[in-house]
Design goal:
This protein has 106 residues and is an alpha+beta fold. The chain contains 5 helices and 3 strands; from the N terminus they run βααββααα. Helix content is 40%, strand content 22%. It starts with a strand and ends in an 11-residue tail after the last helix.
């Protein structure tokens, strides 16, 4: 099982709306993530907009490809893109760069 952690930056003026949007993530988006192999997926948001994402999956590259193939992910990414800083034209899910794990205590 791969453990994946990534960072993104939510725009300061959109933090509250970002939180509100994640209180009711579309059921079809939740189902697509599960079906694509995203497990134990969490997002943590600091008051300054630093977003930490964590998930577990058998194969992160395959899980990303599976989400790329869904229509619901395209809609979600289009709506969420405006919330982030420094995407350089990428969708939020394309801008995720996994961090290198340096320690784990099972």
């Amino acid at each position: 099982m791969e453990r994946v952690c990534f960072l993104l930056k939510v725009r300061q003026d959109r933090i509250e709306e970002y939180r509100e949007r994640h209180e009711n993530v579309w059921s079809e988006m939740r189902a697509a993530l599960s079906e694509a192999g995203w497990h134990n997926y969490s997002l943590f948001l600091r008051d300054d907009g630093l977003l930490v994402g964590y998930l577990e999956t058998d194969d992160f590259a395959a899980a990303r490809r599976a989400m790329d193939a869904t229509e619901v992910n395209a809609r979600w990414q289009a709506e969420m893109g405006e919330f982030f800083e420094a995407l350089d034209g990428a969708r939020p899910d394309e801008a995720m760069r996994p961090l290198t794990e340096v320690f784990h205590l099972p």
